Amino acid sequence: MMFSTALVVLLHVVVASEAMHAKSSTSPTLSYWHLNLPTTPIPDTLRELISPLSSEKTSELLDAIREGKKVSMAEPDPTPKLGRKGGPDSVASQVPQGIYIYGSAADDDIIADPSVSAMFFHEKDLHTGRKLTLYSTLLKRSSPDNRVFFLPRRLAEAIPFSSDKLSVALEKLDISQGSDTALAMKQTLKACEGPANSGERRYCATSLESMIDYTTSTLGTSSLNVLETNVPCKLESQKYTITGIPFQSKSGSKAVVCHSETYAYAVYYCHEAQHITTARVSLKGEDGSSGEGVAVCHTDTSGWNPQHLAFKVLNVKPGGAPVCHFVPNGEVLWLPAH
């Protein structure tokens, strides 16, 4: 059964007239944030992904899904309903998924790509005055035209999120089998269902509410800081000078890192990061731009795949010198506030 004309009009109206109000205090998702994280400001990275759907519109769409109707992700023109330009079968590029799955091996294409390999650096390079070459792959945030929103949790939970039910999800979302989006969704599900890195908990959050629940449960507190990389990026690459390190955690501090994944709506691969130190790093580019990056240094890599990209780039071995990288723009690091 095709998506009804009435609901097509409904979603068009939602995005056209309600998106401007989505970040207001009436947003159910934002209300959930303030209720569960009363002392934690919401970072721009997550705020801009809050769904434009109100509680009432979410209920109507939920009823439509339960009736077996399709929830198309694109307008007929094809302007996106829920946030991505080009319709349901287009995907935006981002940092390769396998980078943060430490049991994975790097292929030749990734090793040869400086925009990816430059993400990693030695801990000894994390000091004031050091110059690092950073690429837009790391720093550039998705444009509004390529952005996908979180679905409200009630709606996300009504859509299957598993490899064995991918065809059902594609049908509900009106996404073509074999399309770029379908293939990306398949890869994301594979990563979410794969084995966790040694000694860590991991979870794929299909809504901001579920990310909050996982993070507060994992870190054992609702008093949290959320850090994000925010560095202006107008060039494909340039050298940045570290001008200061306003914050650096103690070794062994608990943290959760959430990486954005390619999917029909916003999905984050979150995992408990153990044996790390974290730092907020002030950066200034050669073009005069300045901002702040979030760096993570892994002090115990003994359980990583010996063929992981970091070892190839830094010429170190598992269990050797710490491996550091910046958290890409659009991703977040959660830390206990104390």
TrEMBL record:
<feature type="domain" description="BURP">
    <location>
        <begin position="120"/>
        <end position="337"/>
    </location>
</feature>
<feature type="signal peptide">
    <location>
        <begin position="1"/>
        <end position="16"/>
    </location>
</feature>
<dbReference type="InterPro" id="IPR004873">
    <property type="entry name" value="BURP_dom"/>
</dbReference>
<keyword id="KW-0732">Signal</keyword>
<protein>
    <recommendedName>
        <fullName>BURP domain-containing protein</fullName>
    </recommendedName>
</protein>
<dbReference type="InterPro" id="IPR044816">
    <property type="entry name" value="BURP"/>
</dbReference>
<dbReference type="Pfam" id="PF03181">
    <property type="entry name" value="BURP"/>
</dbReference>
<feature type="region of interest" description="Disordered">
    <location>
        <begin position="69"/>
        <end position="91"/>
    </location>
</feature>
